[in-house]
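Hey, resending since the last one bounced:
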Amino acid sequence: MSETPVYIELTATVVPLEPFRDVFIAQLGKLGFDSFTDTENGFQAYILKDRFSSESVVETLQWNGVDISCSLQEIEQVNWNAEWEKNFDPIDVDGRVYIYAPFHTPKQGYEHLILIEPKMSFGTGHHQTTQMMIQWTLELPTEGLRVLDMGCGTGILGILAGMRGASHIDGIDIDTWCVENTLENTERNSIAMSCKQGGAEAIKDTYDLIYANINLNVLLADMDAYVAALVEGGTILFSGFYEENVPALRERAEAAGLTYEGMKGSDHWRSVKMRK
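The structure tokens again:
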């Protein structure tokens, strides 16, 4: 009989809480933590014991001006679905998009109802960066467009583009779990969308609209690949960075041949629209 997997549960208190809770969660995800739950004062994160490195965690959970305290304990395998079900509430975006999970009752009166089962993937629509991308999509004429969702997470942006008439949708994510989850969610919503694992090197086609909701360093590093994949006159939507990062993003994007068209903001987060 195989042994029951043992996990490390990290409980963190973060001051100030926002936007740094999401920053630390994203960083821990890169270290191999594979599930997270929000708490009133911070979050809990889980990783298999044999993948845990205390040194890497200590290095990651540091930020000037932020006070973060953590405790660790070993636990046996967690029912991840039960954990996120306790913390996943339906999302209303501007009274036009309603995002819900299988255990919620669909709510009528919206232009688009999106069924998402996120499990351990990012991009449920709760975070400001995703909501701003949804708002952009509601403003754009997406009928007949070829769309790329970079860092697709749960596939929610590609799904919405499909609901709004996009003719072809591809998703790319570096995380195998996200690829699988995107394909599951597109099937749930009856949207035709391909998805493959990788980074910018996985882009093999050209598009009228590109979503790039990723961290700033990746956006800057992969900018040329995004621009090369965008048709003349095409639109790219960037998200996943703070207000103070906008000048660096614009400088890099404009040097690559893009023109600034507008910006959205939510708390400290920003999203930028540009055109080729």
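Residues 176-188 form the longest helix (13 residues).

Sorry for the duplicate.
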